[in-house]
């Protein structure tokens, strides 16, 4: 960030004074903050409660909340917008609160007596897929919003699309929503893709990897029709174990720990990281994620007895080894880890690197159950767990 001459002058004058920030009048700090760019204002919110309150006031006055979300949050805060009804201010302030998770209190919000096959979150609704139906619950009250018969493995919704995965079949059904002026979706247009290896729903797009071709297709819903385009082909031999979409590019992780991303110019997945990377020999890769456009983390089970965190500066990758690990999910730059023992860990990868794998918060579900899956809403964790063997 390049400061203007006036900001540099004021900063230098204030820094010359003893205990300058403790004695500096709020009016002066407000003048300085009004000259800062959104990224610097964001940094100021992490300094102290006083600075945070002043920065929040300045951002609100200048109506910069949307800018802060889109420029400073991972993938422009798209995950938050899909999951919740929070406004731009609420989204950004909640992302900051997750960094204080070590001070959080854990309590059981609800225990639903339902056999859950899978679940997802959309606009403050918890969508549960049970044996024979799909049920929407209000996340605050846990009251049933709606339910309907549907035999499927997975059911996801965005503002534009609903995706269903049938049981014991390798295809997905995509329904594009037609919106009337009152905002209600009243009609759907379907598309079906067979031989699906995996898919990712992102806004008005569905990214689908097709098995027999190892080719990525992108289905785009344009309000009235589906546009379909082949995007990239994977030519590697190692099996793909995980994928994610970031800034309209798909990234994949293979069993050997290599990561690739799409390059539509040459119609293939190119090696994302340096070929000189070094995967820890004690590690079995399970999942991965991005902390920003250039920084990666890879998480896996390990033969070690305790968590271990290491860093490869050539590939700019953090390796997190976690014994007895069962599932992982990422929420912005915060990582959530589930274990066979019923333990849940919440940590920030960059901090875990400094603390040799120690998370910000750790707790057990009671009674202890194997953690099989979870997701994150702005109010907290949503867990799915099964009985210990």
Account of the 3D structure:
The protein has 389 residues and is an alpha+beta fold. It has helices at 5-15, 20-23, 26-33, 38-44, 49-62, 65-72, 78-83, 88-97, 349-354, and strands at 118-122, 125-129, 133-138, 144-149, 152-157, 161-166, 172-179, 185-193, 196-202, 205-210, 215-221, 226-233, 240-246, 249-254, 259-263, 268-271, 283-292, 295-302, 308-312, 317-321, 325-331, 334-339, 343-347, 361-364, 370-377, 380-386. The strands form 7 sheets. Strands 1-2-3-4 form a 4-stranded antiparallel beta sheet, with no helix packed on it. Helix 3 packs across helix 5. The longest helix has 14 residues, at 49-62. The chain is globular, with a radius of gyration of 23 Å.
Secondary structure blueprint with pairings:
Elements: H1 5-15, H2 20-23, H3 26-33, H4 38-44, H5 49-62, H6 65-72, H7 78-83, H8 88-97, E1 118-122, E2 125-129, E3 133-138, E4 144-149, E5 152-157, E6 161-166, E7 172-179, E8 185-193, E9 196-202, E10 205-210, E11 215-221, E12 226-233, E13 240-246, E14 249-254, E15 259-263, E16 268-271, E17 283-292, E18 295-302, E19 308-312, E20 317-321, E21 325-331, E22 334-339, E23 343-347, H9 349-354, E24 361-364, E25 370-377, E26 380-386
């Amino acid at each position: 960030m390049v400061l203007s001459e006036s900001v540099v002058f004021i900063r230098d004058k204030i820094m010359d004074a003893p205990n300058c920030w403790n004695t500096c009048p709020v009016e002066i700090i407000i003048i300085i903050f009004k000259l800062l760019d959104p990224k610097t204002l964001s940094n100021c919110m992490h300094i102290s409660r006083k600075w945070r309150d002043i920065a929040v006031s300045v951002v609100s006055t200048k109506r910069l909340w949307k800018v802060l979300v889109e420029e400073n949050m991972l993938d422009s805060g798209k995950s938050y917008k899909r999951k919740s009804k929070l406004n731009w201010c609420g989204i950004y302030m909640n992302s900051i609160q997750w960094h204080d998770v070590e001070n959080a209190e854990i309590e059981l919000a609800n225990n639903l007596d339902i056999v859950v096959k899978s679940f997802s979150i959309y606009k403050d609704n918890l969508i549960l897929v049970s044996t024979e139906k799909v049920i929407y619950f209000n996340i605050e009250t846990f009251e049933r919003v709606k339910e309907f018969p549907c035999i499927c493995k997975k059911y996801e919704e965005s503002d534009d699309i609903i995706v269903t995965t049938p049981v014991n079949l390798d295809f997905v059904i995509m329904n594009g929503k037609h919106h009337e002026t009152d905002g209600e979706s009243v009609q759907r247009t379907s598309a079906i893709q067979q031989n699906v290896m995996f898919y990712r729903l992102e806004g008005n797009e569905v990214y689908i990897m097709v098995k027999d071709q190892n080719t990525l297709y992108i289905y785009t819903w344009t309000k009235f029709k589906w546009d379909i385009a082949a995007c990239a082909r994977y030519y590697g031999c190692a099996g793909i174990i995980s994928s994610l979409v970031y800034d309209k590019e798909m990234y994949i992780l293979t069993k050997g720990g290599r990561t690739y991303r799409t390059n539509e110019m040459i119609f293939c997945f190119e090696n994302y990281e340096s070929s000189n990377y070094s995967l820890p020999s004690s590690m079995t890769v399970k999942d991965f994620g991005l902390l920003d456009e250039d920084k990666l983390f890879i998480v896996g089970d390990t033969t070690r007895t305790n968590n271990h965190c290491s860093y490869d500066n050539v590939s700019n990758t953090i390796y997190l080894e976690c014994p007895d690990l069962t599932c992982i999910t990422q929420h912005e730059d915060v990582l959530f880890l589930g274990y066979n023992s019923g333990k849940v860990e919440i940590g920030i990868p960059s901090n875990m690197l400094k603390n040799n794998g120690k998370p910000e918060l750790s707790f057990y579900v009671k009674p202890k159950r194997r953690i099989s899956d979870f997701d994150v809403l702005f109010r907290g964790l949503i867990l799915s767990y099964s009985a210990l063997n």
